[in-house]
Amino acid sequence: MSAGAEVVVVEGVRRSFGALVPVLQDVSFRLEPGELVLLRGPSGAGKSTVLNLVAGLDRPDGGEVLVDGVRVAGLGHPARFRREVVGFVFQLHHLLAELTAEENVEVPLIPAHLRRSQRRARARAALAEVGLGDRATHRPVELSGGERQLTAVARAIVGRPRLLLADEPTGSLDAIAGERVLGLIGRLSRDQGMTVLLVSHDPRAAGRVDRVLELRDGRIVAPEPR
């Protein structure tokens, strides 16, 4: 993978779950380096499936997903791709219950062979960016639902990925925390050139992105240039 933000090309992608459950029928779009794009649509439209395919967490039944010219489904080491290129904010935070917020955020940095002090400093900085600098030593059970989601956002950005995939990152947040996260994602795209694909029902999100894609009935039906 080259340095800098990533080009993402999704071309004619199909994905079904069982013979009678087609989710994506012919999805095609392109993200330019450093572009911030909102993918929206009704519940069950397949938005999370698109993110999983781009991240290499799932494989399409047909079509291709290319990131920086590399076919994601054909990667020999998809875990390395996700570690070095992709940051993923899951709709459910998936924090490790036995670890503190700081330790959860450190997890993506462990394979980088950084010193413990370096990982800790980066994790604390990421937590501060999302407004949780004073909650670093708390375990998930001691955090509110919104704080757990903010911790997941910090974990996704701690390695400064070139491609950020965010699945409803403000879904469990109050208005103030939601504004903080949307503002942070916007700054990462604008100031650091990070390519971002954002899935969100948050009405504020559309006003903060470069472009909106609408997913309905398994297809992109209405690209909306801003």
Automatic annotation (TrEMBL):
**Matches recorded under InterPro entries:** AAA+_ATPase (IPR003593), ABC_transporter-like_ATP-bd (IPR003439), ABC_transpr_LolD-like (IPR015854), MacB-like_ATP-bd (IPR017911), P-loop_NTPase (IPR027417)
- Is Transport tagged as a keyword? yes
Q: Which is one Gene Ontology cellular component term of this protein? A: plasma membrane
Pinpoint the ABC transporter domain residues.
Answer: 8-225
GO terms assigned for molecular function: ATP binding; ATP hydrolysis activity; transmembrane transporter activity
Claim: Amino-acid biosynthesis is one of the keywords in the record: no
> What are the alphabetically sorted keywords of the record?
ATP-binding, Nucleotide-binding, Transport
This protein's superkingdom? Bacteria
- Name of this protein: ABC transporter ATP-binding protein
What organism, scientifically named, is this protein from?
A: Baekduia soli
